[in-house]
Amino acid sequence: MSPMKKTLLLAAMAGLSLSMMLSVIPITIAHADPAGELPTVALALDCELDVVSTAGTRTVAASELFAGTWETTLGPEELLTRVRFPVWPGRSGFAVDEVARRYGDFALAGVACGVELDADGVVLRAAIALLGLGSMPLRASAAEAAIVGRAPSADGLSEIGRLAVADLEPTTDIHASGEYRRAVGAHVVARGLGTALARAAG
Ligand SMILES: Cc1cc2nc3c(=O)[nH]c(=O)nc-3n(C[C@H](O)[C@H](O)[C@H](O)COP(=O)(O)OP(=O)(O)OC[C@H]3O[C@@H](n4cnc5c(N)ncnc54)[C@H](O)[C@@H]3O)c2cc1C
Asked: Is the C-beta atom of 74 inside 6 A of ligand 1?
């Protein structure tokens, strides 16, 4: 990922105003690339998306936006004009982590994740979304549930990484086999969560 993308992602994940980022973020989310970082961040953080057409404006939850590879639930006349990133309170940390064959390539597998900790370092809330592991960005709900209420060790994070990809069947293509993507996916989930936990702990 390029430094500019990292900056945009970190700004987005920090809940900063995104109006300054003009159309880049809405376009990239509307593009709905299953290997894109921003669609995955939008899904992880439960973004709200304003959609405008001649019929008026409506708000769509990120969880309702993606329909398949490069496909959204938006109508042909609808334009995504605004993205709202909810701000997480308290001791929160976030991370985007991924593996690509070369620097700047689309990732083979990746994660956007966030955790909120209580005063004892126990996870109160977790969000885990995956990229490159299906036909669209995916939420790893079972893994989220598994980390809440725990202060996981490195072994615990590995277990949660494996759980995040357990039910997935990523496709095999010229870049990687589905089996490889799944193995890498489990690893980046564990690593990304480790980063998010460290950031939350300060
Ligand atoms: C060499 C290269 C490397 C890349 N690497 C990455 C990467 O690592 N990670 C990553 O996430 N992306 C990557 N991208 C994708 C890139 O960041 C853009 O997200 C992507 O190209 C879409 O932007 P665009 O200007 O091409 O959009 P467009 O072609 O203008 O639009 C894409 C689609 O979205 C629709 N659309 C555009 N704007 C809106 C809107 N406001 N509302 C509704 N629908 C809309 C269009 O109709 C079109 O169907 C890469 C692109 C290239 C060329």
From this structure: yes
Summarised one tens digit per residue, pLDDT across range 142-190 is 999 999 999 999 999 999 999 999 999 999 999 999 999 999 999 999 9
Give the predicted TM-score (pTM) of the model.
0.90
Closest Cα to residue 39, out of 170, 147, 133? 133
Q: Which helix (H) or strand (E) holds 41?
A: helix 37-44
pLDDT above 50: residue 93: yes
Ligand 1 centroid distance, CA of 99 (Å): 20
Name the residue range of residue 69's domain: 3-84
CATH of residue 192: 3.30.390.50
Query: Residue 23: which CATH number?
Result: 3.30.465.10
Residue nearest to atom 32 of ligand 1 (CA): 31
27 lines ligand 1 (CB under 6 A): yes
CB of 201 closer than 6 angstroms to any ligand 1 atom: no
